[in-house]
Design brief:
Blueprint: H1 3-30, H2 37-56, H3 61-83, H4 88-114, H5 122-144, H6 150-183, H7 191-216
Helix pairs in contact: 1-3, 1-7, 2-3, 3-7, 4-6, 4-7, 5-6, 6-7
């Protein structure tokens, strides 16, 4: 697959899956589907499981697209659970903000690629930072089980939102790296490689969207 065709494939897959996810979210909002804590947890578990399988397990192209589509459906339902208490105007504002941030980071990556800047060295720092953020999130979950007073809950919320912002910065760095890599090295030359690149960008978009939803909470 030539480089232009590869780029078209990556972003074509990305846009199709995002439209599916957002379509499910807005459809559930329109139906006023009730929020459910148990379903929220189930969707989170399915999200983590599908994302890990897609990231780590080699598989045929047809199975990869099937699981990617399943992930998109699950995340549409999860986003409804996360954003269900927010007004539609707020949801629309957060979505537009996510799109703007994603496009801005992509343009930075394209600009660096056009200048011949190669960012392969950046990936390991993104991975290390993401692992550290994950450890911090686990620590915060443990801390949250010990909260009793409003003051403790306020401190927890403040620290949690700082970690969320750090996660957003790391995700933005990944988008810059991935866009630069797609425009230069290509991250491969097959449709399966294009799907892998699209999955990475898709999960980055979703991470930014969920983070911005979380930051809207008091």
């Amino acid at each position: 697959m030539e480089q232009p065709a590869f780029i078209v494939a990556v972003y074509g897959i990305l846009v199709a899956q995002l439209l599916l996810t957002l379509g499910v979210m807005y459809w559930l909002r329109q139906r006023k589907t009730a929020l459910n804590t148990v379903l929220h947890i189930v969707y989170l578990v399915l999200y983590a499981a599908l994302a890990l399988v897609l990231a780590l397990v080699p598989m045929p192209l047809a199975l990869k697209f099937t699981l990617f589509t399943a992930l998109s459906l699950v995340l549409g339902a999860l986003l409804h659970q996360i954003s269900g208490d927010l007004a539609t105007a707020v949801v629309n504002f957060v979505l537009l903000g996510t799109i703007a941030l994603f496009v801005a980071m992509s343009l930075v990556g394209l600009a660096l690629a056009a200048m011949g800047v190669e960012l392969s060295w950046l990936l390991k720092y993104i991975v290390y930072g993401s692992l550290a953020t994950l450890v911090a999130m686990v620590g915060l979950l443990i801390w949250s089980s010990t909260l009793k007073t409003p003051e403790e809950k306020a401190r927890f919320t403040a620290v949690f939102k700082v970690v969320v912002v750090i996660s957003m910065i790391l995700t933005s760095m990944y988008i810059v790296w991935a866009t630069d890599a797609i425009a230069t090295t290509g991250l491969g030359d097959t449709l399966s490689d294009a799907a892998d690149a699209a999955i990475g960008l898709y999960l980055s978009f979703i991470d930014l969207l969920i983070s911005l939803f979380v930051l809207q909470e008091p």
